[in-house]
Structure formats: structure tokens, C-alpha cells
Design the sequence.
């Protein structure tokens, strides 16, 4: 079935780095844009980054621009989020999500989330 | 950047009630709006896309309406499994792909 599975979360010190992965299955991964969305404990949803189906366009939230990098490997059906210079305010559950349509649209499939904790 | 506001921020309702949640955009977004349901500890679930299209598998008691700046999510007859937090999101003008602050629906 259509599925997204995140991995790579954990505890990291401020200023540290972490790489999240999102393994896709059950659909043609290379045909859809993908997003990262995060949710701090007890807070709402915050969009983090987007990558076009072919990797040609990438967008970032201002809060992570210059520190986070989204990428994808369509041969491995995997989405990535490289997170550098991590701050306490980056502590959150990170979800990957798939665009409903080939272009930009609603997010129809979400992973289960992976927790990132930035703490000394 | 486009801002989204939701009202109310929370509401208490009973099973069988009709529930309406409003989402307002700071500028026109045509029909590029989605609604999600999130239960504690779970990922969000898409309910409505393009303002009024029901996602496959979502019960017909959920409906969406609106265009431009004002949107509504309606639950025609609230069921026990509908107690959750609901978020609107716009994808007309990006980045960012803005989410609303959420509306928590709990049991009266």
C-alpha cells in the first residue's frame, strides 16, 4: 500500500547535525513533489521544505533557510532532510508528506513522523 | 506571506451536532485550500482538498466550501471518532505552504 516511513530522528546537541530519511512505497515516487512538515510539542503544524518531483525546485521556510537542505533520490524512492546548526526551537516531530497531484497541491499521504530533540 | 486564521480555536460539541470551522486567508487564494484532521500522537489526515473536494475514503459528513479568502469545514453530524484538531492549509502562494493554527474539537 501507499506508505511513507521516516527515520533518522534522535537527540542532538545545539549546533549539531542530523539527516532524516523518508522511504516511499506503493506509488511512483519520481512523479510527485514531496514536503517536510514539523510539529513542536503541543504546537501546530509548520511547513519546513518542499522539493519538486524531479528535484529541480526546492523551497524552504524562513526559519530553516540556510541550515536545512531537502533532497531526494528517485532511484531509491527516498526523501532526505539534512539539518545543520540545529537549535532548541527545531525540536519537533518531523513528517514527510506527498503532494496529491504532480504539481503543487494538498498533502495526501503522510509518514508516521520521527522525533528530533535538540538539547544539551 | 499569506497568513491563515481559524475560528474558533477550540469548541466543545456533542455527538450528532453540526460543527462549522472557519478559515480566513490574509489575501485571496482562489480554491487552493486543504483541511486536515489530526488525532493525538498521529500524523495529519487529508479530509478536503481544493476547498471542497472530498478525499477518497473520507466520510460524506465532512464537507468544505469557500473560495478567495473565506473557507468553511462542516461536519454535518459529529461522531465520536471526529474529536480531533483540524487544520486548514493553503497552497496557492508559496513558499511558505501555510497552515492555520488549528481548531480543537472536544466532547461537551
Sequence:
Amino acid at each position: 500500500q501507499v506508505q511513507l516511513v521516516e527515520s533518522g530522528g534522535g537527540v542532538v546537541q545545539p549546533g549539531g547535525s542530523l539527516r532524516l530519511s523518508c522511504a516511499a512505497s506503493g506509488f511512483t515516487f519520481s512523479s510527485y513533489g514531496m514536503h517536510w512538515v514539523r510539529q513542536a510539542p503541543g504546537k501546530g503544524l509548520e511547513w519546513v521544505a518542499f522539493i519538486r518531483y524531479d528535484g529541480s525546485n526546492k523551497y524552504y521556510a524562513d526559519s530553516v533557510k540556510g541550515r536545512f537542505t531537502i533532497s531526494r533520490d528517485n532511484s531509491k524512492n527516498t526523501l532526505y532532510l539534512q539539518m545543520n546548526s540545529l537549535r532548541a526551537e527545531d525540536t519537533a516531530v518531523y513528517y514527510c508528506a506527498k503532494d496529491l497531484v504532480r504539481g503543487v497541491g494538498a498533502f495526501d499521504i503522510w509518514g508516521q513522523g520521527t522525533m528530533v530533540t535538540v538539547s544539551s | 506571506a499569506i497568513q491563515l486564521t481559524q475560528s474558533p480555536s477550540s469548541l466543545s460539541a456533542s455527538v450528532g451536532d453540526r460543527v462549522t470551522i472557519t478559515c480566513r486567508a490574509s489575501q485571496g487564494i482562489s480554491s487552493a485550500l486543504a483541511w486536515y484532521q489530526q488525532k493525538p500522537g498521529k500524523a495529519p489526515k487529508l479530509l478536503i482538498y481544493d476547498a471542497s473536494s472530498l478525499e477518497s475514503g473520507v466520510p460524506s459528513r465532512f464537507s468544505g466550501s469557500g473560495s478567495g479568502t473565506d473557507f468553511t469545514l462542516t461536519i454535518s453530524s459529529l461522531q465520536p471518532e471526529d474529536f480531533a484538531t483540524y487544520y486548514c492549509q493553503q497552497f496557492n502562494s508559496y513558499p511558505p505552504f501555510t497552515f492555520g493554527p488549528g481548531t480543537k474539537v472536544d466532547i461537551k
Q: What stands out?
A: Chain A touches chain B through 22 residues (CB under 8 Å).
